[in-house]
Amino acid sequence: MPLIVGIFLRAKTFGPVAGVGTLLLTGLTVASCSTSDTGSTTASATTRQFTAPPADCAAATSVRPVADAVRQYAGTRYGAGAVFTPTDLSAAPGMAATHLICNARFGELAQADSSSALRYLSISFTVNDSPGDAAAAAADQFQRFRANAPDEFTRMDIGDDADTRERRVGPNGTEVRTRFRMSNLTVDVITSDQDYSGAMPAAGADPELAAALRTGAEAVARALAGAIGTVMPAR
What we know:
about 25% helix; two-stranded antiparallel ribbon; 8-stranded mixed sheet; alpha+beta; DUF3558 domain-containing protein
């Protein structure tokens, strides 16, 4: 599946926002991006060619640095029952061999001691299996997504290329997405929040929430990149 331009996540499983119930692949359209750079992108982070995504969500998220970053992001909402569940890709023949999408919800709507009850986290792994130079194909795919996404982004120094962006969801919601590429692997980390009413708080109106979502997405992404040799299956 050499050309997956974008993965936007929606869930019917956990509620109106985050987790993944439907996988939407966007087409190519020309759009401009406003860019803010913070640090340089690390070049040639890996020359390894990946052949498959992690075996399952447990393999991808139970590695100590990743598990610690997830727990930090979830905060007091983290509990023993918080597990990642995979998106069912059976309706997209061939994708299971090159994709893994893991989703988690932290918190309970039954609690009433906070205005922000739930935190969501979705992690997707996409292995480009193009014949020839798969890393170059993945780099081209990464740049196409960046060029066609209308949201402002900030470059990050993770892997071979990375950025973080916020995206409006519905009338008052926000998701934060940090995505990075290492060789022919692209990883997307998406964070979002939901209050007790079922509505998505507007991150732009709540600096602390915006910072928490951004910090969480970037920390999980960095942990995954740092542990990639353990997270990804051996060749």
